[in-house]
Design goal:
Elements (H helix, E strand, L loop, with lengths): L1 E5 L15 E5 L13 E4 L11 H9 L3 E4 L9 E2 L2 H8 L7 H11 L4 E5 L6 H20 L3 E3 L21
Length: 171
């Protein structure tokens, strides 16, 4: 099973929306209504979260054909309860630091063979500090489990920081 995890950074336009080999899982209210195909949409925020009530997002929730997987099922009357307990039990909570991390955990849990990341850059200060470590953790865990992880070649998540100490002192 190939899972394409798609968020709103620029590379989202290159996701395999029309490939029958991929299941498209999306997150991020800013771009979700522009994606041509979504199989599952993930909302990890509570129903009172500010973006939930924005008109374009409300329209998306009302018109999408995607399954809506939510932590708080009051987000939408037909949403599917995300298996929070099972995921926390298997993976702990330390690295469940973003919607994408929660999505990666579920992809691993459901037996994905390939996880692709499009539109997931995590380069703003908040994303880099709080969300990137969780996504990098699940990327590494997936690879350790034999799952192929792919992303566009220029994706910042593929660029690792140099090992400490700097300047080759750790030879």
């Amino acid at each position: 099973m190939k899972i394409a995890i798609v968020a709103g950074a620029p590379s989202c336009v290159d996701a395999p929306f029309h490939s029958p080999d991929w299941k498209v899982w999306a997150t991020g209210p800013a771009m979700c209504d522009t994606f041509p195909i979504i199989h599952r949409y993930f909302e990890v925020h509570p129903a009172w979260y500010p973006h939930i009530s924005k008109p374009h997002f409300e329209r998306f929730l009302q018109t999408t054909q995607a399954e809506i997987w939510a932590h708080d099922t009051s987000v939408h009357p037909h949403s599917i309860q995300y298996p929070i307990g099972a995921i926390k039990s298997r993976f702990g909570t330390e690295f469940l630091s973003s919607s994408v991390a929660w999505m990666m955990a579920l992809a691993i849990q459901e037996g994905a063979d390939v996880i692709g990341l499009w539109g997931v850059d995590l380069v703003t200060a908040l994303e880099y500090r709080k969300q990137r470590p969780g996504v990098k953790h699940f990327m590494s865990l997936a690879q350790e489990l034999g799952i192929t992880v792919t992303a566009p070649p220029d994706c910042p998540l593929l660029m690792d920081l140099p090992a400490y100490p700097p300047n080759g002192e750790n030879k």
